Amino acid sequence: MASTLESLETQLEMFIENVRQIRIIVSDFQPQGQNVLNQKIQALVTGLQEVDKLRSQVQDVHVPLEVFDYIDNGRNPQLYTKDCIEKALTKNEQVKGKIDSYRRFKSYLLVELNNVFPNELAKYRALRGDDRPIS
């Protein structure tokens, strides 16, 4: 699969380069450049045929739509993975903070419940099989 993707990448890079060269030739067209232009157009057609041949081998590759947003915004699509990891780490820190807060709240609640309802809390803890001391 990796060699197929590399082959596709090479074909697309060659296609982009041919389009760039055609743009240069057309923008300053000289009649003596007609043969070169024809060769570049033929190379463009051949390149598209090669890309079409590779299509069936990369059909299972799924690209997140956000990657196309990166490209549309002029950003490097290779930064997408890095940004996803950074977002995941940030979210992980937020969730960890919430978990820690709930744990502190639970221990504070148990202390307060033990102060106000010691008998009921002892029964509750006996039912749960929780013999740890309340801190």
Can you offer a commentary on this structure?
With 135 residues, the chain is mainly alpha-helical. The chain contains five helices and no strands. It has helices at residues 2-27, 34-55, 65-72, 79-116, 118-128. Helix 1 (2-27) packs antiparallel against helix 2 and helix 4 (79-116) packs across helix 5. The longest helix has 38 residues, at 79-116. The radius of gyration is 32 Å and the shape is rod-shaped. The two termini are 57 Å apart. The mean pLDDT is 89.
Poorly predicted residue ranges: none
Mean pLDDT: 89
Q: What is the CA–CA distance across the termini?
A: 57 Å
Instruction: Note the overall shape.
Output: rod-shaped
Secondary structure elements and pairings:
Layout: H1 2-27, H2 34-55, H3 65-72, H4 79-116, H5 118-128
Main attributes?
135 residues; mainly alpha; 0% strand; rod-shaped
Short description:
The chain is an all-alpha fold and 135 residues long. It has 5 helices and no strands. It has helices at 2-27, 34-55, 65-72, 79-116, 118-128.
